[in-house]
Specification:
By secondary structure, this protein is α+β, with helices and mostly antiparallel strands. It has one domain. It is about 45% helix and about 25% strand.
Length: about 55
């Protein structure tokens, strides 16, 4: 089975972009990107904790 292409390319203004197959992933930047990553991290942490507690019962 052929592995999908994963690579880093230089983007505009020195930012990097990641390509996985035909999908391009660009990181969020600035204050909004930072706040979004913090919010996603907190929400995923809460959901994982609740999910593991439900499974462990």
């Amino acid at each position: 089975m052929r592995q999908p292409h994963v690579g880093m390319m230089a983007g505009r203004k020195g930012r990097s972009r990641m390509r996985i197959g035909n999908t391009e992933i660009r990181p969020l930047g600035g204050a909004w990107g930072c706040l979004a990553m913090i919010a996603v991290s907190i929400l995923l942490s809460i959901f994982c904790t609740i999910g593991l507690n439900l499974i462990a019962r």
